[in-house]
Every structure is written in C-alpha cells, then in structure tokens.
C-alpha cells in the first residue's frame, strides 16, 4: 500500500529533512505534495533524485491526502491542523500546538507506540520537542528496568533548533568576528558566536522558560507523570545536534555496567562510552545519523541510586523529521490509517 503525502513547510530546515527521510526510509509514497506559503509557490525542493514544486498551502485541497507532515510553526498548525484532520488526512505535527492536548497522542515510537491508538480522535499526532525526543529514548529503557524518580537535565541546543534564521545568525556573526565586522545580534537576544545563551523560548512566572517546561511536561505525558524533572535549556554555537547532560535518580541501585547493557539493547540507542580522550559522541559525530547516542555513563555519588550520562542526537532528524516519519510508519504498520488508493507508483 502507498500514501499520498503532503509536507507543510517544505522549504524550512525540518521540512527539507522530512523529504530526505521519506526517501531514505523508502516510505511508501504514491504522490508527494510540497506545501509552503504563497511567496514560496513554485520554489523547487528535492525529493530523492527528483524535484517537486511547492504549492500554496492556502488553496490546497487536503481531502485528497492521506498523511500531512506539518512543520511550519505553531501558528500555522493551530490554524490548519484541525481543519486538515476533519478533511480526513492524518496530521503529524512538529510544533508544540497540540502536544499537551489530551485528545492528541504525543509519540516517540521507541517509547510509547501503543498511544497511536488515540490518533483517530482528532486525526492529529504530535511530535515532541527536539530535546525531549532524544531524552525519552534514553530514559525509557532505564525506567523500565529501575523506576526513575527524578532527573536533572541541562541541554546544549544547536542553532538549527531555532530554524534557518538561527543558523544564519551564527554563520554571519562568526564571519563578522573573524573579519572585525558587525556581530550585533539580530535574531538571538545576545551574541551566539563563541558564546552560550542560558535562555530558549520565553520566561514564565516561575523563572523557567517555556522550552524547559515543554521538556518535563512532555516527558511526563509520554513516559511517567510521577517523574520529577528540573531543566536548564542552553543555546550553543553548534549548527546541528543537541546534547544533554542528564542526572537520574532511580528507586533502586543500578550500576553503570547494568545501564550500558540495558541501553545497548534498546531501540534507537547507540552506546559509545569508553574512558578515553575520544570515547564519547559529540554533535559533529551525530549529525546526519538516526541514533540517539549515550556516553559518559557513571555513578552519581551525591544521591542514592544516581547515574549521570551524556545524550547526543541530530535534532533535525530524531528530534524532528525522523521521528515524524517513524510516526507515519507506525500509523501504517498498526493499521491506524489506510491509504485512499493502494497501488505504489511514485508520482511527483
């Protein structure tokens, strides 16, 4: 069977990565539509060895589509996702618009695949925050083995998490500083080149940011509402790849060797953990890869039953586009959706 698929936001970083991964995973696409704003109508984007011209989101007929991969931001999703769902297409939304909606499943296939049964309520499935996705892939197998009671997470998030404007700002500031030019911030609140910013999103009344709150809200929704999390989200001058320093407390003792063995057997996880100068994974190593990498697994001697470790993943892939396509695969494999036509003949 094959599906008519539309990618909304096809000219953006994540939209383009969605097109790449649909092709890489050989997802059964009978016809693909690339959708964007009116100003991008006619712009060509790559899909495998072909190009597709962008169509106007405002005038597109969604009743002809089986699956919509939505990556155009929260405002666009709030305006369009429910309309698209009512038209009969299944929306996989990469924004935060519906993540905490009780009638919308929030899915990481390695973590809570059974929640896909809720997808037909609104014909919307939510993709988690990019930092949450990689975190829960690492936490889930450990939580199954020894219940996690508390976690402390510090993120080191790349500028691609802020979109093309974030990447452009890092590139332009770096060039300006080397060339003694103007490095005045235009997109981020402070200079990002050769700097780190302990602020992502917007401040809440409790002093945390909404980006930090997303991580504990989403982890609790997908994994366990009783896990207590405290989070500090930091933007770093890295183009692609989010990293996280994680300290976890369990309800029973668990050794680093036991944790390594559990994680090595877990879906979507790669353990690279040698006590050598290069025995860990960095964002540069993870860029372009599908896996969530775990390194630096060690005992935390300051709390009972504590472990600390380092988690890295390509935020445009597992943190966004790859997880969305994996959700599409899960919808197909679980029989949650059926294509309107069943023959596979690629047409673009």
UniProtKB/TrEMBL annotation:
Keyword Oxidoreductase found: yes
Molecular function GO terms recorded: aspartate-semialdehyde dehydrogenase activity; NAD binding; NADP binding; protein dimerization activity
Annotated residues for binding of phosphate: 99
Keywords: Amino-acid biosynthesis, Diaminopimelate biosynthesis, Lysine biosynthesis, Methionine biosynthesis, NADP, Oxidoreductase, Threonine biosynthesis
GO BP of this protein: 'de novo' L-methionine biosynthetic process; diaminopimelate biosynthetic process; isoleucine biosynthetic process; lysine biosynthetic process via diaminopimelate; threonine biosynthetic process
Residues reported in the UniProt entry to bind NADP(+): 11-14, 39-40, 160-161, 315
Catalysed reaction equations from the record: L-aspartate 4-semialdehyde + phosphate + NADP(+) = 4-phospho-L-aspartate + NADPH + H(+)
Annotated Semialdehyde dehydrogenase NAD-binding domain residues: 4-119
Assembly notes: Homodimer.
Functional note: Catalyzes the NADPH-dependent formation of L-aspartate-semialdehyde (L-ASA) by the reductive dephosphorylation of L-aspartyl-4-phosphate.
Listed name of the protein: Aspartate-semialdehyde dehydrogenase
Organism field: Brevundimonas viscosa
UniProt gene name: asd
